[in-house]
């Protein structure tokens, strides 16, 4: 396969923007990049389009996103009345012991409710049914009274922090839960079959191809209940020729016992697996989210001075998990939004047994930092997975969550890059923007899509187009220990690329989100064409 007459965009590589190239593909890898047209049995005229590396999204929840495409999606509900109608239309018949579940509601915007949804409100849908509805950001859920009674019998649930269990004035659970309590309910109350997961994934994956995404690192276990079933679903899709992406599957754990159990019963470690499906990292939640004031902060929340968030583990508990993971050759990815959680993550990663530089452990989000934390990061170089598209909706709320003196260290992308701390760009799908160019736009401009605030929010933390694109291509390949074979356009590397309608360096930064993918190629095969 030869593609003649293409321009090439690649960060940190000396392709001449003013000339066209020929690209020869042999099987699933690039064989030759030539300055002269090539001939062969199968030749495509690239018509001067821009060929660039395709995207590797290092942090998402692909199964959750895919289930939104297959199951009940409540993201468009504008009121409680509308949400009820959507549920009733979707579930035309409820069998005994069936679950009613939906995802993506935002009751904070409902004007026909006096407060937020509780178990009592769900009686308006069905009095005697198991119901579970997840908030659009994935950090809250509300369950029915029948499901609530079932939850009260779960002894292990008592270990989840009380701060994550909403209570009424009588001290009784309202049916509304936060953060790791949400994950517990998803993980323990039901488990979809591998076949259900496959059908959902087949509905969701084409949306990735549309936006040029050919590799993902995904945390899915809570939406199927079993790592074994999750592995089965993805590898069966691969065997059936229905997996046009590379996948790293994270293993979410609640405690050290979960990690020990996995390592004792599974030989595969991070980076190992089949051709397209590999073991990812051990996923550990250290704190909650700033919207709910559960992200662990070293200072009180300015608008909630009686709250400073919640650490889910003691330092000793986290140290033990990270040490064991390091000894077992498992990479760790820790959700840490608040600066107190980031501090806890760094303390665990500084242990020699963690093997941080060798295993390339990750901190997810790291939205609130400070000079001392950046200095500690500089020394041990954890990979930091960022989601710049969150700024689209959050830039004007940061002062509510962070002391004024630390606001300049929120989403401090440029400060980290100056210290050579490796950053990846990612979506946290379905929470953030799926389109990588929206993420790149936000990282480069630090405004919303309407250009607010003028000049960018905390403009000293803007990063270059080159750095943002690298965070979606070459750097995630390093997390896979695969930087010698993937992530750039070069002979011998995996032939994952996109054809774009414009050259990224030839449009104004404020228009980066308008870039479009015309074609997506994965391992030398075209998987999408507009």
Task: Please characterize this protein's 3D structure.
- Helix 3 (119-122) links the parallel strand 7 and strand 8 (130-135).
- This protein is of the alpha/beta class and 530 residues long.
- It contains 18 helices and 21 strands.
- It is globular.
- It has helices at residues 62-70, 80-90, 119-122, 145-152, 179-189, 194-210, 227-239, 256-265, 315-327, 339-349, 356-359, 371-380, 391-394, 398-401, 413-418, 436-445, 465-470, 474-479; strands spanning 2-8, 21-26, 29-34, 43-45, 50-53, 55-60, 99-105, 130-135, 140-143, 165-167, 173-178, 213-218, 246-252, 277-285, 332-336, 362-365, 383-386, 423-425, 497-500, 517-522, 525-529.
- It starts with a strand and ends with a strand.
- Strands 1, 2, 3, 4, 5, 19, 20 and 21 form an eight-stranded mixed beta sheet that branches.
Can you describe this structure in just a few lines?
The chain has 530 residues and is an alpha/beta fold. The protein is built from 18 helices and 21 strands.
**Major sheet:** 8 strands, mixed
Overall geometric form: globular
What fraction of residues sit in β-strands? Answer: 15-25%
List the total number of helices.
Answer: 18
Structural class: alpha/beta
The residue-averaged pLDDT reads: 94
Give the fraction of residues assigned to helices. 25-40%
Oligomer: single chain
Distance between the termini: 20 Å
Low-confidence stretches: none
Q: How large is the radius of gyration?
A: 23 Å
Write down how many β-strands occur, each being a DSSP E stretch of 2 or more residues.
Answer: 21
């Amino acid at each position: 396969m030869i593609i003649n007459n293409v321009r090439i965009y690649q960060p940190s590589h000396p392709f001449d923007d003013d000339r066209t190239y020929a690209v020869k593909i042999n099987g699933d890898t690039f064989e030759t990049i030539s300055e002269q047209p090539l001939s062969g049995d199968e030749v495509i005229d690239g018509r001067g389009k821009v060929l660039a590396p395709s995207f590797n999204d290092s942090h998402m929840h692909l199964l959750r996103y895919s289930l939104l495409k297959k199951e009940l999606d409540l993201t468009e509900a504008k009121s409680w009345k509308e949400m009820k109608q959507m549920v009733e239309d979707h579930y035309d018949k409820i069998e005994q012991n069936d679950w009613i579940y939906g995802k993506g509601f935002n009751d904070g915007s409902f004007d026909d409710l006096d407060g937020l949804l509780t178990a009592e409100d769900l009686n308006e849908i069905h009095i005697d049914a198991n119901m579970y509805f997840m908030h659009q950001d994935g950090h809250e859920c509300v369950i029915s009274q029948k499901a609530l009674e079932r939850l009260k019998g779960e002894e292990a649930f008592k270990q989840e922090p009380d701060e994550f269990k909403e209570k009424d004035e009588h001290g009784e659970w309202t049916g509304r839960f936060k953060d790791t309590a949400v994950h517990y309910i998803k993980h323990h109350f039901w488990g979809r079959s591998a076949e259900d997961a496959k059908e959902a994934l087949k509905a969701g994956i084409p949306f990735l191809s549309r936006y040029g995404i050919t590799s993902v690192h995904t945390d899915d276990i809570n939406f199927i209940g079993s790592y074994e079933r999750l592995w089965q679903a993805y590898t069966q899709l691969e065997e059936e020729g229905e997996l046009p992406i590379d996948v790293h599957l994270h293993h979410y754990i609640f405690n050290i016992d979960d990690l020990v159990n996995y390592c004792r019963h599974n030989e595969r470690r991070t980076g190992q697996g089949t051709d397209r499906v590999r073991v990812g990292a051990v996923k550990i939640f250290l704190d909650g989210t700033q919207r709910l004031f559960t992200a662990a902060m070293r200072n009180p929340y300015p608008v909630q001075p009686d709250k400073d968030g919640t650490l889910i583990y003691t330092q000793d508990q986290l140290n033990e998990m990270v040490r064991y993971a390091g000894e077992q050759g498992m990479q760790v990815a820790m959700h840490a939004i608040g600066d107190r959680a980031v501090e806890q993550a760094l303390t665990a990663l500084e242990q020699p047994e963690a093997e941080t530089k060798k295993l390339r452990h990750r901190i997810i989000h790291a939205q609130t930092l400070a000079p001392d934390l950046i200095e500690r990061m500089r020394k041990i170089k954890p990979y930091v997975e960022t989601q710049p598209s969150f700024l689209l909706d959050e830039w004007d709320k940061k002062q509510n969550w962070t002391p004024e003196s630390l606001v300049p260290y929120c989403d401090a992308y440029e400060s980290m890059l100056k210290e050579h701390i490796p950053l990846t760009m990612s979506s946290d799908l379905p929470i953030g923007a799926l389109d990588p160019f929206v993420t790149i736009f936000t990282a480069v401009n630090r405004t919303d899509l309407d250009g607010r605030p003028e000049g960018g929010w905390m403009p000293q933390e803007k990063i270059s187009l080159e750095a943002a694109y690298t965070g979606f291509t070459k750097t995630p390949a390093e997390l896979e220990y695969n930087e010698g074979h993937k992530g750039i356009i070069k002979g011998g590397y995996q032939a994952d690329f996109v054809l774009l309608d414009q050259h990224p360096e030839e449009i104004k930064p404020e228009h980066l989100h308008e870039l479009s993918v015309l074609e997506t190629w994965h391992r030398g095969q075209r998987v999408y064409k507009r």
